[in-house]
Amino acid sequence: MRFNTVLYKLKGFYKFGRTVPKLRGKVFVNRTGVIEVGRGLSIVGHPWAVQITSTKGANLTIGDHVYINAGVGIAANKEITIGDHVKIGPRTSIFDSNYHRMDSADKGELSKKITIGNNVWIGADCTILPGVTIGDNSVIAAKSTVNKNVPSNVLAGGSPAKVIRELEIEEGWVRE
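== Maltose O-acetyltransferase ==
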Protein backbone atom coordinates (compact mmCIF):
# COMPACT_ATOMS: atom_id res chain seq x y z
CA MET A 1 0.00 0.00 0.00
CA ARG A 2 1.36 3.42 -0.88
CA PHE A 3 2.14 5.87 1.93
CA ASN A 4 -0.41 8.39 0.55
CA THR A 5 -3.12 5.75 0.75
CA VAL A 6 -2.19 4.98 4.36
CA LEU A 7 -2.26 8.67 5.25
CA TYR A 8 -5.72 8.96 3.69
CA LYS A 9 -7.06 5.95 5.59
CA LEU A 10 -5.53 7.17 8.84
CA LYS A 11 -6.33 10.85 8.49
CA GLY A 12 -7.01 12.04 11.99
CA PHE A 13 -4.14 10.17 13.63
CA TYR A 14 -2.21 12.77 15.56
CA LYS A 15 1.20 11.09 15.47
CA PHE A 16 2.31 8.11 13.39
CA GLY A 17 5.36 6.88 15.27
CA ARG A 18 8.51 5.84 13.41
CA THR A 19 6.93 3.47 10.87
CA VAL A 20 3.74 3.47 8.87
CA PRO A 21 0.94 1.33 10.36
CA LYS A 22 -0.10 -1.87 8.55
CA LEU A 23 -3.77 -1.75 7.63
CA ARG A 24 -6.14 -4.25 6.05
CA GLY A 25 -9.82 -3.57 5.53
CA LYS A 26 -11.80 -0.62 6.92
CA VAL A 27 -10.46 1.56 9.73
CA PHE A 28 -12.49 4.57 10.82
CA VAL A 29 -10.73 7.26 12.84
CA ASN A 30 -12.65 10.06 14.56
CA ARG A 31 -10.31 12.53 16.18
CA THR A 32 -11.02 15.81 17.90
CA GLY A 33 -8.71 14.81 20.77
CA VAL A 34 -5.15 13.47 20.67
CA ILE A 35 -4.18 10.08 19.22
CA GLU A 36 -0.56 8.92 19.45
CA VAL A 37 0.58 5.70 17.80
CA GLY A 38 3.90 3.90 18.27
CA ARG A 39 5.90 1.81 15.80
CA GLY A 40 4.60 -1.33 14.17
CA LEU A 41 0.86 -0.82 14.65
CA SER A 42 -1.14 -3.46 12.75
CA ILE A 43 -4.92 -3.20 12.27
CA VAL A 44 -7.17 -5.73 10.53
CA GLY A 45 -10.50 -4.13 9.59
CA HIS A 46 -11.85 -7.12 7.70
CA PRO A 47 -14.47 -8.60 7.78
CA TRP A 48 -15.59 -6.03 10.39
CA ALA A 49 -14.46 -2.40 10.43
CA VAL A 50 -12.33 -1.04 13.27
CA GLN A 51 -13.48 2.20 14.94
CA ILE A 52 -10.97 4.42 16.80
CA THR A 53 -12.21 7.61 18.47
CA SER A 54 -10.66 10.34 20.59
CA THR A 55 -13.10 13.09 21.57
CA LYS A 56 -12.25 16.72 22.32
CA GLY A 57 -9.81 16.95 25.24
CA ALA A 58 -9.18 13.17 25.30
CA ASN A 59 -5.88 11.28 24.87
CA LEU A 60 -5.50 7.89 23.22
CA THR A 61 -1.98 6.43 23.28
CA ILE A 62 -1.19 3.18 21.48
CA GLY A 63 2.29 1.70 22.10
CA ASP A 64 4.75 -0.08 19.82
CA HIS A 65 3.91 -3.34 18.00
CA VAL A 66 0.21 -3.37 18.88
CA TYR A 67 -2.17 -5.64 16.94
CA ILE A 68 -5.84 -4.64 16.69
CA ASN A 69 -8.14 -7.26 15.19
CA ALA A 70 -11.40 -6.88 13.23
CA GLY A 71 -14.45 -5.24 14.74
CA VAL A 72 -12.60 -3.57 17.62
CA GLY A 73 -14.01 -0.30 18.98
CA ILE A 74 -11.81 2.03 21.03
CA ALA A 75 -13.32 5.29 22.28
CA ALA A 76 -11.36 7.73 24.45
CA ASN A 77 -13.39 10.45 26.13
CA LYS A 78 -10.77 11.07 28.83
CA GLU A 79 -7.67 8.86 28.50
CA ILE A 80 -6.82 5.39 27.24
CA THR A 81 -3.24 4.09 27.27
CA ILE A 82 -2.39 0.83 25.51
CA GLY A 83 1.14 -0.50 26.15
CA ASP A 84 3.66 -2.16 23.85
CA HIS A 85 3.17 -5.63 22.30
CA VAL A 86 -0.57 -5.69 23.08
CA LYS A 87 -2.88 -7.97 21.08
CA ILE A 88 -6.58 -7.12 20.97
CA GLY A 89 -8.97 -9.82 19.75
CA PRO A 90 -11.87 -9.33 17.35
CA ARG A 91 -15.08 -7.55 18.39
CA THR A 92 -13.54 -6.15 21.57
CA SER A 93 -14.81 -2.83 22.98
CA ILE A 94 -12.63 -0.45 25.01
CA PHE A 95 -14.57 2.60 26.22
CA ASP A 96 -13.48 4.94 29.01
CA SER A 97 -16.95 6.49 29.44
CA ASN A 98 -20.42 5.33 30.39
CA TYR A 99 -21.79 8.23 28.27
CA HIS A 100 -24.80 8.72 30.54
CA ARG A 101 -25.79 8.45 34.19
CA MET A 102 -27.61 5.36 35.44
CA ASP A 103 -30.10 7.35 37.51
CA SER A 104 -30.56 10.76 39.15
CA ALA A 105 -28.56 9.69 42.24
CA ASP A 106 -25.48 8.90 40.08
CA LYS A 107 -23.10 11.83 40.60
CA GLY A 108 -19.83 10.05 39.68
CA GLU A 109 -17.56 10.82 36.74
CA LEU A 110 -18.77 9.59 33.39
CA SER A 111 -15.23 9.03 32.07
CA LYS A 112 -12.36 7.26 33.86
CA LYS A 113 -8.87 6.45 32.55
CA ILE A 114 -8.12 2.99 31.17
CA THR A 115 -4.56 1.61 31.23
CA ILE A 116 -3.58 -1.59 29.43
CA GLY A 117 -0.03 -2.70 30.29
CA ASN A 118 2.69 -4.15 28.08
CA ASN A 119 2.51 -7.63 26.52
CA VAL A 120 -1.22 -8.00 27.26
CA TRP A 121 -3.47 -10.29 25.23
CA ILE A 122 -7.17 -9.45 25.17
CA GLY A 123 -9.27 -12.27 23.72
CA ALA A 124 -12.19 -12.05 21.30
CA ASP A 125 -15.43 -10.25 22.17
CA CYS A 126 -14.23 -8.65 25.42
CA THR A 127 -15.46 -5.44 27.00
CA ILE A 128 -13.04 -3.19 28.91
CA LEU A 129 -14.95 -0.70 31.06
CA PRO A 130 -14.00 2.76 32.43
CA GLY A 131 -11.44 3.06 35.23
CA VAL A 132 -9.75 -0.30 34.61
CA THR A 133 -6.03 -1.09 34.68
CA ILE A 134 -4.81 -4.36 33.17
CA GLY A 135 -1.30 -5.26 34.38
CA ASP A 136 1.67 -6.25 32.23
CA ASN A 137 1.76 -9.76 30.69
CA SER A 138 -1.85 -10.55 31.57
CA VAL A 139 -4.37 -12.41 29.41
CA ILE A 140 -8.07 -11.62 29.30
CA ALA A 141 -10.12 -14.65 28.24
CA ALA A 142 -12.59 -14.38 25.36
CA LYS A 143 -16.05 -12.91 26.07
CA SER A 144 -14.90 -11.35 29.36
CA THR A 145 -16.16 -8.10 30.85
CA VAL A 146 -13.39 -6.28 32.73
CA ASN A 147 -14.89 -3.90 35.29
CA LYS A 148 -12.15 -4.04 37.96
CA ASN A 149 -8.36 -3.87 37.85
CA VAL A 150 -6.48 -6.99 36.72
CA PRO A 151 -2.99 -7.51 38.21
CA SER A 152 0.12 -8.32 36.17
CA ASN A 153 0.96 -11.88 35.08
CA VAL A 154 -2.49 -13.43 35.40
CA LEU A 155 -5.20 -15.04 33.30
CA ALA A 156 -8.54 -13.36 34.01
CA GLY A 157 -11.91 -14.23 32.56
CA GLY A 158 -15.65 -14.21 32.97
CA SER A 159 -18.34 -11.60 33.30
CA PRO A 160 -17.31 -9.87 35.46
CA ALA A 161 -13.68 -10.92 34.93
CA LYS A 162 -11.92 -12.61 37.85
CA VAL A 163 -8.39 -13.93 38.18
CA ILE A 164 -8.33 -17.58 37.09
CA ARG A 165 -4.65 -18.30 37.64
CA GLU A 166 -1.20 -16.77 37.74
CA LEU A 167 1.03 -16.97 34.66
CA GLU A 168 4.74 -17.78 34.57
CA ILE A 169 6.35 -15.09 32.42
CA GLU A 170 10.11 -15.06 31.92
CA GLU A 171 11.88 -11.70 32.03
CA GLY A 172 11.81 -10.09 28.57
CA TRP A 173 9.43 -12.66 27.01
CA VAL A 174 7.02 -11.16 24.47
CA ARG A 175 3.90 -12.84 23.02
CA GLU A 176 4.08 -13.51 19.30
